[in-house]
Design a protein that fits this description.
Elements lengths: L2 H11 L3 H9 L3 E6 L14 E7 L4 E9 L6 H16 L4 E6 L10 E3 L4 E3 L1 E4 L6 H4 L4 H6 L10 H15 L3 H15 L5 H10 L10 H21 L1 H25 L1 H4 L2 H4 L5 H13 L3 H11 L1
Parallel strand pairs: 3-4, 4-7
Antiparallel strand pairs: 1-2, 2-3, 5-6
Length: about 300
């Protein structure tokens, strides 16, 4: 999977793995427990999800699930290596499923057969899964996954509007809803639909706007007042400039906390090094649009 999507996809999919198992794979399990996945048995990558699952009849098995965004020619060999490793360590033959989430036509092989060895895993192209399996779920994490599924009977605009409308219904709190919409935007890149998602979110006024946040406005106004007061003593222009910067810093700090939590607040030491109002304004606007903390770090790295 491309590193560009790997982190956010795992963050989203970890909350819907059980749903994929029941609604897509079709296994009836009563309990699943994640097993430590830092099993880097090759120099390529770590496993995505390894689960110990219990079925209705009391039997136990291992379930190995991978998500692949590109056609990897040697996937069958990777799966075989994991099968051998997991069987050796746990004494159980794992069931293996690979979800192909890429946009190009699926071209990977799901089996290997030689004179001495055979191996087969289950390969699922998520574009073949009906989007309605997830679209009308009561869980926003599942609604988000529908962007990767088959929506051809709906049409692009109708489909995206339904996703965003469903998220609006399920998540009334604006900041949290903004998080889910950003996740849809990231996943939509795998379907070349990001422009459509962003435009529709804007039309529906679903994008979180720091300028409308009461605490942000209060912080900026307080900074302006304090700056003006200092300006009486040190020169009005200098005081106003400093007031703007202090107000922006307070607003930026709030925005980072609301959108990214502790990870966002860790950026404030870098933000405070910025020495111009224009750069701070640019960064403030980027907070609303950015899809990850790494994107913000990239901006700051080029600004200081």
């Amino acid at each position: 999977m491309s590193r560009r999507y790997d982190k956010v996809i795992k963050e989203i999919l970890k909350d819907v793995v059980d749903t994929l198992i029941t609604k897509v794979i079709g296994l009836k399990i009563v309990k699943s427990t994640a097993i430590e996945t830092k099993l880097q048995i090759t120099n390529e990558r770590e496993a995505d999800f390894i689960l110990r699952v219990e079925f209705e009849d009391g039997s136990i098995s291992l379930l190995h699930i991978e998500f692949q965004a590109t056609n990897y020619a040697n996937m069958v060999y990777r799966e075989l290596r994991y099968w051998l490793y997991l069987t050796e360590v746990h004494g159980i033959h794992p069931m293996q499923y690979v979800f192909y989430i890429g946009n190009e036509p699926l071209a990977m092989k799901d089996s290997l057969s030689t004179e001495s060895t055979t191996h087969k895993y289950h390969l699922i192209d998520i574009k073949d899964v009906d989007c309605e399996k997830f679209l009308y779920s009561d869980k926003p994490e599942e609604v988000i996954i529908s962007i990767l599924c088959n929506y051809q009977q709906k049409g692009v605009k109708t489909f995206i509007t339904e996703i965003l409308t469903r998220l609006k219904e399920l998540v009334p709190e604006e900041t949290l809803r903004g998080k889910y919409i950003r996740q849809v935007e990231v996943l939509s890149q795998l379907r070349n639909l990001q422009d459509e998602v962003c435009k529709e979110a804007e039309v529906m006024a679903l994008v979180y706007d720091l300028e409308k946040d009461v605490r942000f406005r209060q912080g900026r106004e307080r900074g302006m007042v304090e700056g003006e007061q200092r300006g009486e003593q040190r020169g009005e222009q200098r005081g106003e400039q400093r007031g703007k910067m202090e107000g922006l810093l307070e607003g930026i700090e709030l925005g980072l906390e609301l959108k990214y939590g502790a990870a966002g607040l860790e950026l404030m030491n870098m933000v405070r090094i910025i020495s111009t109002v224009d750069k701070l304004e640019e960064f403030k606007n980027l907070i609303r649009k950015a899809g990850s903390v790494d994107e913000l770090k990239g901006f700051l790295g080029n600004s200081i």
